[in-house]
Amino acid sequence: MTIGKLIISFAVFISIALFENTNPKLLKVILLGFILSFISSFFDRDFLFDISFLSFGFLVLIFLIYNIINKKWLPTLIALPILVLFIFKTQYWSYLSEIQTAMFIPVITYMIIIKNYKTYKNQIAILTILVAFAISEIIRLADYMMAAN
């Protein structure tokens, strides 16, 4: 197990503990989807891994649209770079490492959200998973940069 999966595992356990704080049913469905997507990534089948990856991107898109409709801009600022990274990874586009560098935006935004916890307590479980993914991508980029030298 890589350190990225370990960080995301920890975030999933925190999200399961915070499941009751997630109020709208749509956010609960998105959170359950993220949890199932993460669990299915552990199976050794390529098909399940691909479904896990694609469902993660689809759930990020739904979460992003939900936040745009409800005019919640800080969660949007977390989800947008992750969705862009997902699109770059699925399409094998150039400049992926630059997009991975942008994963600092969700981490910094999450720190701001933690300071205003009461405003975002319904979404904090989902945001924890997304920021854990962003941190794992930063670590993956650092490993890549160190291996290139």
Key features of this structure:
single chain; 149 residues; mainly alpha; 7 helices
Please characterize this protein's 3D structure.
The chain is mostly helical and 149 residues long. It has one domain. The protein has helices spanning 3-17, 25-40, 46-69, 73-91, 96-101, 104-115, 124-148. The two termini are 24 Å apart.
Give a quick rundown of the structure.
This protein is mainly α.
Between the first and last Cα atoms, what is the distance in angstroms?
24 Å
Overall 3D form: globular
What number is the mean pLDDT?
A: 93
**Overall number of domains:** 1
The number of helical elements comes to 7
SSE pattern: HHHHHHH
Blueprint of the fold:
Layout: H1 3-17, H2 25-40, H3 46-69, H4 73-91, H5 96-101, H6 104-115, H7 124-148
Helix pairs in contact: 1-2, 1-7, 2-3, 3-4, 4-6, 4-7, 6-7
